Amino acid sequence: MHALSDHPRLSGSAAIAAVSVAILIPAYRPAAVLIEIATSLMDAGFTSILVIDDGSGPEYRWIFDQLAALKNLKVLRHAVNLGKGAALKTGMNHALVDSPGLAGIVTVDADGQHDPADVIRLASRFTESPEALILGTRAFAGHVPLRSRLGNSITQAVMRVVAGQRLSDTQTGLRAIPRGLVERMLTVSASGYEFELEMLIAAKHLGYRILEQPIRTIYEAGNPTSHFEPLRDSMRIYFVLLRFTLISMLTAVLDNLLFYGFFHASGSIAAAMFAARLIALGFNYAAVRKAVFLSREQHKIVLPRYLMLAAANVCLSYSLISFLSGTLGVEVIAAKISVESILFIANFAIQRDFVFARPRR
């Protein structure tokens, strides 16, 4: 067990943070170090701490009983293990109901990987930027478990492409979350580790800034207290990211099938493209607005942008397909698939950063 660092009581802006934020610690079969973590945070001046027993079982009850006896700490329990995301949502909901004036929530892992001194610094920075999602980012230098290093590197690369964000630590559990984003996350269906990735995606498309606060990287040999299953949980996390492309792929399939049918019926590229694209766009707009880009902007704001992009895309696509098929002799269907594949990334990036993204708060 590592030694938790010594730290003074909170003062100044950090003291304000201790009053306006709740500490939330999801725990599944934790080690006794959790008691030390909670005590250290109380000694630092935090006055609202929630620990969620995510179905740890009777053999761990003594740990939670000792925690429940501490002042300013409340233990909430799941009868069975529901997953980290479910535990976070249970704590978030309770915190918002119990403290209507709460500015935000700071989440802390129960395995001792977060130094209380870093929690203090993160809370203090949140006081300065209460409308931003602040991530406690690890350096991943020195001896870091391979599954942690590899998992973060892959997710970091995919997040850069899919969400347009360059984040150095996408899987950190130390986060300061503004109240508005907390409220939004309560409606997310994810219940496992993928919940934290959903949070990054939601923050991006709801217009919240994402800031990074460097923290210590603490791992025990073999990372024994981590319940992250590399294969199972990575598949869940990356399925969240694959959802971004799934609807676009379905739209492309629908568009191409309709185009094929209309083209053979009419013999006109323009007529076939217009009819197919009109139907496909209706499906795509409804799907990406709700399930991909998490947009809650009014249709009168988002739809004109979407239609402008669609019109520009149709014109460019038609010109390129006509050039390939008419000038270079490429078969029409093959030309369309080639052109649409090239335009896919550009269309996605424009929808991500212009059509459906809120202005930054």
What does the secondary structure layout of this molecule look like, with pairings?
Blueprint: H1 13-20, E1 21-27, H2 33-44, E2 49-54, H3 61-68, E3 73-78, H4 84-98, E4 104-107, H5 116-128, E5 132-137, H6 146-162, E6 175-178, H7 179-185, H8 194-205, E7 209-214, H9 230-266, H10 269-292, H11 299-327, H12 332-355
Parallel strand pairs: 1-2, 1-4, 2-3, 5-7
Antiparallel strand pairs: 4-6, 5-6
Helix pairs in contact: 1-5, 4-7, 6-9, 8-9, 9-10, 9-12, 10-11, 11-12
Description of the structure:
The protein contains twelve helices and seven strands. With 361 residues, the protein is an alpha/beta fold. The chain folds into two domains: 13-228, Alpha-Beta Complex (Spore Coat Polysaccharide Biosynthesis Protein SpsA, Chain A), CATH 3.90.550.10; 242-355, no CATH class. It is elongated, with a radius of gyration of 24 Å. Mean pLDDT is 83; it is low at 1-5.
Summed up, what is this model?
By secondary structure, the chain is α/β, with parallel strands linked by helices.
